[in-house]
């Protein structure tokens, strides 16, 4: 434990400066945990090198048996209580049920994306599952070099490479449903939206939400804010709190947070100030029971679980997971049961069916990079 | 009247946002006035944020949390002092190392203790600093103008906010009206003179670094246990660096530091309240407001608005004999 601690501490210090050394030291690290005398000597000799290894060296101690799946988390980190945690949950469920093992890495900087991909591909992991739109460019650079390896890209749908399974979620449809609930729960006639980093994907969330709210109450006032324009916006709960307070002072009494770790601050402040909040990606209802109206579920766990179950026989291509595929949805459990009226439940169920049947269409922000219901 | 209420709300938000900046800025002021540059403010705040939240979560007492936060920040200060005072290492590099160390350590220890992925459990009850309401705040809130200022703006912050603002006159008094302050400033300008007078340069610098640690500890604890209810990885989000910018902006003076921090806090608060500001046809995007603190600092550094001269012996380890 002490050794691990040391490795990681020093690794973090050197992390950003020694990306190149980490691919090398992976094997070194593998050797640390092998018991033979030979390796012990090697361990001593190369301790310095392994100290330079990135945090990943610790994360990867599971060892790289042939054709284990691999999972690359996005910058928010494995336990963001949201997007990445959903992937982690799917992967752990797969490992529990099948007894299989998988490799994983939490990248710490943009530069690690491509390296992590290559590293896993070289070591024979298959399939390699990547999280987040940020992996699109690294994937297009790497995937073609490993035609026999299958890649999975969550939140990427626009690449033209044969060995990638690209999974897109219809976030606007799920957000539409929570928007309806927000509008029905709101007494002030003002609802709020707090996004993380200002990127099209988050506007896509906000746009669906606004359409849902307006479908219930055409006169509703929607206050929308973005936390920032850099990746730091995913982990700034203090700013999330201030935004929440600002929106409350503008009359909002239900606030939807699509902001990763920043959302923790939003949900906390909303609970402190006695208004309702809506979680995102994972089920966040349990964070403040009775104060979180619902959560917009993005079943990343299902996508990851399915990909791992399929293993090397994974089907590639572009897949859309919407309401019909149960890729998105709203979270209903004991924690929010007192907040959800039968009328609300009925309206949401009806809207879900209407969207699936095509009677109601939710406009996607991507269609022409603008939203009919909300001005960002 | 509505405009006035919005105005008060923005100022209220300004105070909350400026407090961590002010504490970190004063921390840097002590350290840099004594000739020790400290870009590890960010790391110390982060470490203190984690340990205050962790101890408050385990013990249920926010005061123990505050002490733990200050202690952890002091340890990092000691490390910085050891590297840059005793071993005469490069102060910038030591500061960078502290930032990295804190970023990695906090998440690692948090994961090992709480297994919630580098967070602490949410704090509740006695684990958090609660707002202090001034007497009669409720009943006076109806009075026009003065009422909202008293009940919204001045009342209702946590005790650490008042501590932070009281630290400004205290710092001024210590630096300019006490023997210790005179020596502290002297050691940042001309350590050889201080040494000749028979006063310990090393001792003074360690004292300055320790004060810096205490203030950073309070700043971190404020973030995690007063503004928020728990620690989230990287939750300082660059506030240590904005505090450094404010320190330069204030030209290393306490009252000006408060002004700079309030200004930077105000810019943030405005950016948070009004996403894009429409000034009669010209729209100021929110990004411009976010960047303004840094732009202002560069302008000051470039010498357009007076000259920012750092303490003369800043950044140089003191060597008795050459």
From TrEMBL, chain A:
Pfam families per the UniProt record, alphabetical: Bmp
Domain ABC transporter substrate-binding protein PnrA-like: 74-357
Subcellular compartments: Cell membrane
CDD domains (UniProt xref): PBP1_PrnA-like
UniProt membrane topology term: Lipid-anchor
Keywords for the protein's UniProt record, in alphabetical order: Cell membrane, Lipoprotein, Membrane, Receptor, Signal
GO cellular component terms listed in the entry, alphabetical order: plasma membrane
Domain of life: Bacteria
InterPro entries: BMP_lipoprotein, Peripla_BP_I, PnrA-like
Family label: Belongs to the BMP lipoprotein family.
Protein name as it appears in the record: Purine nucleoside receptor A
Record organism: Ruegeria atlantica
Gene name tied to this protein: tmpC
TrEMBL record, chain B:
Membrane topology, from the record: Multi-pass membrane protein
UniProt name for this protein: L-arabinose transporter permease protein
Organism: Ruegeria atlantica
GO annotation, cellular component aspect: plasma membrane
CDD domains per the UniProt record, alphabetical: TM_PBP1_transp_TpRbsC_like (cd06580)
Transmembrane recorded as keyword: yes
Major location (coarse): membrane
Keyword Magnesium recorded: no
One matching Pfam family: BPD_transp_2
Keywords, in A-Z order: Cell membrane, Membrane, Transmembrane, Transmembrane helix
GO molecular function list: transmembrane transporter activity
Domain of life of the native organism: Bacteria
Transmembrane residue ranges: 49-71, 92-114, 159-176, 206-225, 257-275
Localization terms from the record: Cell membrane
